[in-house]
Amino acid sequence: xxxxxxxxxxxxxxxxxxxxxxxxxxxxxxPLAYAGQSCEELPLTSKxxxxxxxxGLAVQEALNASxxxxxxxxxQGQDLSKYGLKYSxxxxxxxPAAGQPWRIYELLNQxxxxxxxxxxxxxxxxxxxxxxxxxxVLIVPPEKVAAKLGDALHQPAFLxxxxxxxxxxxxxxxxxxxxxxxQWVLEILAAAEASDIRIRxxxxxxxxLKMAGYVPTEMHIGPLTRLGGRMVKANVAFDDHPxxxxxxxxxxxxxxxxxxxxxxxRDEGWTVQELKGRR
Length: 279
Prior knowledge:
Helices cover 32% and strands 15% of the residues. It has 279 residues and is of the alpha+beta class. The protein has a single domain (19-275), classed as endopeptidase fold (from Nostoc punctiforme) (Alpha-Beta Complex), CATH 3.90.1720. The strands form two sheets. A six-stranded antiparallel β-sheet has the order 4-3-2-1-5-8, with helices on both faces. A two-stranded antiparallel ribbon has the order 6-7. Strand 2 and strand 3 form a beta hairpin. Helix 3 (143-152) packs across helix 5 (181-193) and helix 5 crosses helix 6. The radius of gyration is 18 Å and the shape is globular.
């Protein structure tokens, strides 16, 4: 549900070198960034480095074999099992052409704040920030959708047009007041999926998703969780949810599971592949 990262001052659309070079550059780096995990700063150990490298390479091989130059990639940044969920965060993996390096386009939250930024990362970096597990999922689009997603990822201004900097880990899927990481990916996907109309902004994307039958994940939380989250955490808010949901302690949000369910129901040829990480 979340992507959190302590971003340096000029982190937006950060290009990274080829995967191997990126990993070498990170060998002595203590990560200040956390995407879908806790915000505790932990040193980068040789094990976490080698695990991230192995996972990045495994994902790269699966992406290369997918027959597409774009896919949605998810990870298990935090433990969401109490909500019946596994994967917490997705990004858009993309390469301009076969043989070129893959990048991950994603929305990330600055840890402990209510702000987000758009990032471009390497595959290994995507799994570098102390994830709950190194399992990954690849959600591969059919050819026509992949082509439209590829076109969108060539247009930074278009992607920024779907970005809301006010971050909320549990943003309501049909409100533009806030946005979470998975919601940004889903709204970009809506713009690529819509064949009968041209989607130019978040309002139109959400209207199309509702019309197309997208169903968010509903989580049942206690009143103390709801009130505590709002008072203590800057990146958790519930005031964008309809009162009928809020006051019955039900929260709807865009999750990786709801994205997978949505593309599967469209019966267009999407494939979902899970990759087991190191234990």
